Amino acid sequence: MNPATAAAHAAPSDQGEEMFDLFRRPQGRSRARPDERAVIDGARTSELTVNGKSAVVYRWGDGERPVLLVHGWESRASRYAKTIARLTDLGYSPVAFDAPGHGEATGDSTTMIEYRDIIVELHRAHGDFEAIVGHSFGATATYFALQHGVRTGRIVAISPVPDFAYLVDSFCTAARLPAQVNEELRGRIEREVYPGEADMWTRFSVFHGGAGAHVPLLVIHDENDGSVDPGQGVRVAEFFGARLVTTRRFGHLRILGAPQVVAEITEFVTAGATGPGRKTEVVAG
């Protein structure tokens, strides 16, 4: 879904076809980093099948006070290793997964529906979560799952994508695609990826239906995020009256492992909301 990759590979005569394929499939599969390995190797792992595809589920702790961590597009559960280690030390039971087409899971792609179904199944298995931490696409999927009965005490939205329409529009804008390609891409997504999903452009949104309106929320976004405009984090925080933490120089991916961010997440998860509307700046060291 990387627009720079898309622009480099698509010829004008077949832009629509190329863009559709590049948008709906992760471009490359990231590997666990050396400093993440110990945490991942210490997890209890299992497979979860949704829509005929397999996700890999990771669990730590004794099952008490579960916290779900939801990775973003072209990412993986191991990116939360530092947060997982800290939460485990504090007596929580982190739960994470590699979605189909990501991390150690099989397949070459996934959908918002499959993300939702995974979260719903994990909620069924673990009960209400103490908190859910969602990064980017994972934040959108978290709120979509709340529309379908998932309950949590708190939410942390990191670099949040506010809605699915933003994904398509920002992808097309970054790749400098004409309006007709945007329209073609939307049409193919509706017909081929989400057939029968009425009003998907409205429902695949953190703002839809009041889901999570009364759940304490912390938003964290880096001012140098090159994938999701930092203004989207502001939108989400203002809509929910949530605290917004703005970081510097971590970008879209490094933010998950930044010590200051890990501290913000764990403090919020363990202590609850710290007051709506407060803005905090975290400077990279």
UniProtKB/TrEMBL annotation:
Keywords: Hydrolase. GO terms for molecular function: hydrolase activity. InterPro entries: AB_hydrolase_1 (IPR000073), AB_hydrolase_fold (IPR029058), AB_hydrolase_sf (IPR050266). The keyword Hydrolase applies. Pfam families: Abhydrolase_6. It comes from the Bacteria. GO terms for cellular component: membrane. Residues 67-186 form the AB hydrolase-1 domain. This is Alpha/beta hydrolase.
